[in-house]
Write a structure and sequence with these properties.
Strand order of the largest sheet: 8-9-10-5-11-12
Order of helices and strands: EEEEEHEEHEHHHEHEHEE
Helix content: 25-40%
CATH architecture of one domain: 3-Layer(aba) Sandwich
CATH topology of one domain: Rossmann fold
CATH superfamily of one domain: P-loop containing nucleotide triphosphate hydrolases
Number of strands: 12
CATH class of one domain: Alpha Beta
Low-confidence stretches: 1-15
Structural class: alpha/beta
Bound molecules: adenosine-5'-triphosphate, magnesium ion
Distance between the termini: 12 Å
Strand content: 25-35%
């Protein structure tokens, strides 16, 4: 665990038994998310305290409507918190302007969704490389090779999304999400549109990215078998975490 962990002096917040303390890469404090429905605010998240250590692979499970996607979008800076704090690599997202939050998201977070959201007119290579250009550092051939080989895409790079299987499309989406070395990869039901065989391949690759590259991953899933690939399973219900809140 925690290949890329930053070892710090012990604090009261997070002390691994008998070891050094490791500072959370992601932390929420009393996090609330309310949605306006007519004249009332409906709470999707109700005071979530949650943390993820560098190098952890965490699965989030819970019934439909319990707030899993809301949690992912708020911690990933795609949606604004209503109350409480979100700390990503020590930066308080909730104290930032929209522009600052977008910048932080681009540099520190990678997203993967159930629908692959690839650009249909670009090849697999184009879909991945464009993320490097948008990030601002330009094309990095070494990183591109490492990521595409690890995801088994080297033979498929010149195909457009419509010429790829669902599993291959999702692997392109994962490559795009991690090409700029984000601190955290967030995945919202990444195997939700895949058959069993492709789901297993995608999950094994997410696990490998975590083990071999130290990629921190938080993944939502409805499937207990998918969750079992991960170090820790967090269970949510009605906007709160009921189990698996921290790494120890
Ligand atoms: N944009 C929105 N506007 C209003 N209510 C919303 C919005 N997004 C989500 N909700 C509500 O917030 C609650 C949590 O939704 P969320 O999408 O986070 O659940 P989920 O656990 O991801 O569910 P699923 O497993 O079905 O994807 C639900 O009651 C949902 O109807
Ligand atoms: Mg959801």
């Amino acid at each position: 665990m925690a290949i890329a962990a930053t070892i710090r002096q012990p604090t009261e917040e997070c002390i691994l038994p008998g070891l050094f303390s490791v500072e959370a890469i992601l932390k929420t404090e009393n996090l609330w998310k309310l949605y306006r429905a007519g004249k009332v605010d409906v709470p999707a998240l109700r005071g979530i305290n949650f943390e993820v250590l560098p190098g952890e692979a965490v699965a989030v499970m819970g019934p439909s409507g319990c707030g899993k996607s809301s949690l992912l979008y708020v911690i990933g800076g795609l949606a604004q918190a209503s109350r409480g704090r979100v700390l990503v690599d020590g930066n308080d997202l909730t104290a930032m302007s929209d522009a600052e939050r977008t910048k932080l998201r681009r540099h520190k977070i990678g997203f993967v969704f159930q629908r692959f959201n690839l650009l249909p007119t670009l090849t697999a290579q184009g879909n991945i490389a464009i993320a490097q250009y948008i990030h601002g550092d330009g094309f990095d051939p070494h990183r591109f090779d490492v990521v595409t080989k690890m995801l088994g895409l080297d033979g498929r790079l010149h195909h457009k999304p419509s010429e790829l299987s669902g599993g291959e499309q999702q692997r392109v989406a994962i490559a795009r999400a991690i090409i700029n070395e984000p601190k955290i990869l967030l995945a919202d039901e990444p195997t939700g549109n895949l058959d069993t065989k492709n789901s297993e391949i995608v999950l094994a690759m997410l696990r490998q990215l975590n083990k071999d590259l130290g990629q921190t991953v938080v993944m939502i899933t409805h499937n207990p078998e998918a969750a079992s690939y991960f170090d820790r399973i967090v269970h949510m219900r009605d906007g709160v975490i009921v189990d698996g809140v921290s790494a120890d």
